Amino acid sequence: MATVQISEAEKVYIVHGVRDDLRVDGRGCEDYRHMEIETDVVSNTDGSARVKLGYSDILVGIKAEIGRPRPMVPDEGFLEFFVDCSANATPEFEGRGGEDLGTEISNTLYKVFNNPHSVDLRALCISPKEHCWILYVDVLLLQCDGNLYDAISVAVKAALFNTRIPRVQISEDDEGTKEIELSDDPYDCMRLSVENVPCIVTLCKVGQRHIVDATLQEKACSKACLLLSVTSRGTVTCVRKIGGGSLDPESIFEMTETGKRVGKALQSPLMELLQKEESLGKKRQKVGFLG
Amino acid sequence: NMAGLELLSDQGYRLDGRKPSELRKVQARMGVFAQGDGSAYIEQGNTKALAVVYGPHEVRGSRGKALHDRAVINCQFSMATFSTAERKRRPHGDRKSSEVSQHLKQTFEAAILTQLYPRSQIDIYVKILQSDGGNYSASVNAATLAVIDAGIPLRDYVCACSAGFVEDTPLADLCHAEEAGGGTVLSLALLPQGGQIALLQMDARLHQDHLDTLMEAAMTACRSLSTVLDRVVREHLQEVTTLTAE
Q1: Is residue A139 within 8 Å of A155, Cβ to Cβ?
Q2: CATH number, domain B26-245
């Protein structure tokens, strides 16, 4: 389900609940739903993660490929995003039905992640003007239950944390032709720092207040949402108003303040969890879809 | 053979150490998702597939599609862009996946009791998350479980398996390296109780004398798979009934 339709009475019930800081599922306005994260779930990738937020279910796979740097930034690699809104999530996405949503989300992901402030793109450069790593970040929507942006951003961050890029060496022969050699040791890998990688916090205006992590029902009561990407230090790196309605400057200011606070609070448990999961190493029982 | 790999060693073992008739490890779970009417996940070795079923519901889109005496089966097969060793550019819509979608549709038209739901539609969506050969078979097996999870009556479990033929020996349940090895590959979907074949496909030449042995190998593999699927269904029901009883 990508959207739901609800009756006027239900809307009133939800809006009144939000006014009293008690939402339909018992949460307060700034609370997230239960989130589950697992990394290293697809072995054909260089990094992967699966995130469940409510019933929203996201799988992200990252593949690193060698390509040419962009002429404007010859000493940086880059990220490519693709969002697959699969028919598994909802029959509406069958055929080309999910393409619009997919493009909208991937465009936002480019803005949030594909810049040197979020990801160390220089580390992806192999030899300036000639070779760099391109990270293909493929997002797969398996189930939609609201707040896709936040869940996807967490999944992307977790997958970037999990990504291991093989080390390469450039050798030059007598005639000056360069050759790239991949390391023979599969464990000889480079990792990306995810310290500055932001997470997205989407705030939805419901009645006079705004809420975090809206369900589909709550989203249906909201006129407009504000999407913020926040780093672990509380810096806002991207702001975007989404939805059909309009917001007054004052609520945008208030929502930004809440977003900063919530985003900062989201980051440290996420990093803790990722580090803890990694420290288990091979002992970790992989759950995947069988659990 | 073309890949230059020895698909069957002198001692009679395959690339991944299996015996010719041995299947890869199968693990499966039903009811993985809450939103669809039925869902299932299967792992056959390193091939991982996810199936979701919606319906039976009203026919979507043009009314002209509706059939007056049975349900329309609508299938979409797709592969995650990161599922293969080489990244795929599109998850579905290419010739290969459209072909598998068609095959899935045929298979399930033969297996589902479609006449019980006239003028309606059943959607079966299958996604390959990780691909290591036998994509069609894994899709059929996952979809069977998902259809059962949705409570849609089937004539029987539909089980599918691939089989190959190397050095006069039939190999069951091929992995990617064996499929790409250039030999004969046969895909077969079976309704095991009556021994009915729901789909049969073979893409390379094979001496007619060998066809029987190859089909027999695939059918034996399908029968073994059906016992595994049956166990998964029974365990799932056990789990669900104890949960609801509490």
Answers
A1: yes
A2: 3.30.230.70
